[in-house]
Amino acid sequence: MFRKVMIVLEELGLHYEPVYLNLSANESKEEKHTKYNPNGRIPTLIDHVFAIWCVPHSDATPLGDASKGTVGELNCVSCGESGAIISYVTEKYDRTRKISFEKFEDKMQLLQWLFFQASGQGEDPSAIIGYQEIIRVLGVLESVLSQHRWLVGEKYSVADVSFITWNHAAFACLVKDYDGFDLEKDFPSVHRWHNEMLGRPAVDKVFAMWQAW
Ligand SMILES: N[C@@H](CCC(=O)N[C@@H](CS)C(=O)NCC(=O)O)C(=O)O
């Protein structure tokens, strides 16, 4: 979950400072985190002037310079839910529309995929999600990706990014040893799409950082 937000930040060349929380030790439930994200889950993005869970802090003093796209000290508001974070980051900082869209219809399709990913793939990849549901979601992706290289607007975007980490966990663990599961054979377009994304420098960098933690 965390990685997909980092991939977006990397793709946009934004400066950020990852803060690691030990979920097993319930650090995400501690007040130092829930004051920014009352859901007590990760990821949470803290921009120096705004955050999406809209927790107002009366002592807010904006720091840094939003126009420079830097992420500075915590101060006034914070933001959780990976889909909302991704939308926030691209709407605010992807000024050249490298991985997002200007056209209304494309924006709405992008949102559709962010919602679909969040609802269709559940939350924590380690949670119990039925094999049939995983296959059903892969089938939806396959039906689109067999016709189009990318999910929206014929270019790589955060719609595609939103699936990388969950799918990676699913392919590496959840369905890997499931009798009869063959990603390349049964979902060739998903296989092509996923591997193309893994080859991107931003994705590669974040996965390498993740492995080093
Ligand atoms: N819908 C949320 C899901 C967040 C989520 O499930 N995060 C997991 C880690 S991947 C988490 O914080 N688990 C710890 C917990 O539930 O206490 C999102 O997309 O941001």
From TrEMBL:
GST C-terminal domain: residues covered:
89-213
User: Which InterPro entries does the annotation name?
Assistant: Glutathione-S-Trfase_C-like, Glutathione-S-Trfase_C_sf, Glutathione_S-Trfase, Glutathione_S-Trfase_N, GST_C, Thioredoxin-like_sf
Under PROSITE patterns, the record lists: GST_CTER (PS50405), GST_NTER (PS50404)
Q: Which Pfam families match?
A: GST_C, GST_N
Q: Which UniProt keywords apply?
A: Transferase
Give GO MF terms, alphabetically.
transferase activity
Residues forming the GST N-terminal domain are 1-97
To which protein family does this belong?
Answer: Belongs to the GST superfamily.
Protein name (database record): Glutathione S-transferase C-terminal-like protein
